[in-house]
Write a structure and sequence with these properties.
mainly alpha
Length: 369
C-alpha cells in the first residue's frame, strides 16, 4: 500500500467518482448499524430471493471498480509488467480481506472465513483486468454473457435439490468441497457464503459492465450520455425483472437477473448524477467525490474501527461492562426509537469517515495499493 501526495488533478468523469463515493458511504451505512436487532428492513439484505435498498450497494462498488479500470488500464497492453501489476493488486486486495476477517487476531485460523467482500472485489478485478487486457469491447460483452450463462448452467447441473435454494445449491456445494464449512459465512444458519467462489463468475460481469459504460461515456457528449444511460438503464432493469420469472433475483447467489436489475438501477442513478454534475455543473454531490478519493483505505478503517469499538474497547458503566459501540447505541436509544437510533448511529459513522476523507482529500493524499 502506497501513499501518494498529488499536486495535479487528473481529468476524470466527475459523476463516476461521485458514484464510487456513494457506494462507499452506503456500504458503511449498511454495515454499521447501532444494533443488528433494530434495523429498518430496507437497510437489510433480502433474506433470499428479492431485492432491497441494501442490495444495490455491492454491485455499485463493483461497477465503480470496472469504471476506474477504464482509466487506469487505458494505456496498458499485454506484457509481463501488466500481468505483475494485476496479480500483485489481486493478491494484496485478497490479503486485506483476510486480514479484516481475522482481526483482532484472537480467533483460530482454522475457522477463518476465506470468502468476503474484499476477496470478491480482488477476484473480480483480477479476472476482469485480464479480460480487458486481451479482449476488445464487443468481445467483453460476449465474455460477460458467457460468464453469466455458464454460471446459470452450473447452478442447474450441480445442485442437490432445488438449484436456487439455500441448502444444496452449486455455490454452497463447491465452497464446502474446496474450503470446508468452517471457512464459510454462518449467518444463514448453515455454512453458505454469499461471496462464494462460484458466484464470483457473474459478479465479474458487474465489473465489466462498469468498464464498458465508462469507456462509452469517455467518447460521448455529456447531454447525450444522460439519454444513453437512461435508455440502457431502463433496458437492464426491465430485463432483470423479466428474467426474474425464470431465474429469481438473488444477491446471495448473484443471479443473472440480479446482475441485470442492479446494473439497470445503477445506470439510472448514474444518469441523474451525470445530469447534475457534468451537465448542470452543480456541486451538490461534491462531498461524494471526496468520499470516493480513498475508498479502500476508508472501507478497511471503518471495518477495523467497528470491530475494535465492539470487541476491544470495553469499560464499566452503571455497574455493567459494555463496549464503546454498544454504549454509543444505547446513548442514542435513550433519546430516539431503537430503529431510528440505530440509523443515526450508522449515519454518524458515515459522517465521521467523510470527515477523515475530506482531511486526506484537502492534503491531496491518496492511499492506494
Amino acid at each position: 500500500m502506497a501513499i501518494q501526495q498529488s499536486q495535479q488533478k487528473t481529468e476524470r468523469f466527475i459523476a463516476l467518482d461521485a458514484l464510487r463515493g456513494l457506494a462507499l458511504a452506503l456500504m458503511i451505512l449498511v454495515n454499521t448499524p447501532g444494533s443488528w436487532s433494530h434495523v429498518y428492513p430496507s437497510l437489510l439484505h433480502a433474506e433470499w430471493h428479492g431485492f432491497t435498498f441494501a442490495d444495490i450497494v455491492f454491485p455499485m462498488f463493483l461497477f465503480a471498480v470496472g469504471a476506474a479500470m477504464a482509466f487506469s488500464m487505458a494505456s496498458m497492453s499485454p506484457s509481463v509488467a501488466a500481468w505483475q501489476k494485476i496479480i500483485k493488486r489481486t493478491l494484496l486486495l485478497f490479503a486485506c480481506g483476510l486480514l479484516l476477517h481475522w482481526f483482532p487476531f484472537t480467533g483460530s485460523i482454522t475457522e477463518l472465513r476465506i470468502p468476503g467482500v474484499l476477496q470478491r472485489i480482488a477476484l473480480c478485478y483480477g479476472i476482469a483486468a485480464v479480460l480487458v487486457l486481451y479482449l476488445r469491447p464487443r468481445q467483453l460483452w460476449l465474455a460477460s454473457v458467457v460468464l453469466v450463462g455458464c454460471y446459470w448452467l452450473l447452478l442447474l447441473l450441480f445442485a442437490s435439490g432445488q438449484p436456487y435454494a439455500l441448502a444444496g445449491n452449486a455455490v454452497q456445494r463447491f465452497d464446502l468441497w474446496l474450503l470446508g464449512p468452517a471457512h464459510l459465512y454462518q449467518g444463514f444458519g448453515v455454512a453458505f457464503d454469499p461471496e462464494g467462489l462460484l458466484s464470483t463468475l457473474p459478479a465479474v460481469s458487474s465489473v465489466l459492465i462498469g468498464y464498458w459504460v465508462a469507456q462509452q461515456l469517455r467518447s460521448m457528449q455529456k447531454l447525450t450520455s444522460v439519454y444513453w444511460l437512461l435508455c440502457f438503464g431502463l433496458s437492464f432493469t426491465i430485463l432483470g425483472l423479466l428474467w426474474h420469472l425464470l431465474w429469481p433475483i438473488n444477491k446471495a447467489l448473484w443471479t443473472g437477473s440480479y446482475v441485470a436489475f442492479s446494473s439497470g438501477l445503477i445506470l439510472l442513478l448514474l444518469a441523474g448524477m451525470v445530469w447534475l454534475l457534468d451537465v448542470q455543473q452543480k456541486n451538490w454531490l461534491q462531498p461524494l467525490v471526496v468520499y470516493g478519493s480513498n475508498p479502500l483505505f476508508i472501507y478497511m478503517l471503518s471495518w477495523l474501527w467497528a470491530v475494535a469499538a465492539s470487541q476491544l474497547i470495553r469499560f464499566s458503566f452503571a455497574g455493567q461492562t459494555t463496549s464503546l459501540y454498544q454504549f454509543g447505541f444505547d446513548s442514542l436509544a435513550t433519546l430516539l426509537p431503537a430503529k431510528l437510533a440505530s440509523l443515526v448511529f450508522a449515519l454518524l459513522h458515515v459522517l465521521l469517515f467523510w470527515l477523515l476523507s475530506y482531511w486526506l482529500y484537502q492534503r491531496r493524499i491518496f492511499i492506494k495499493l
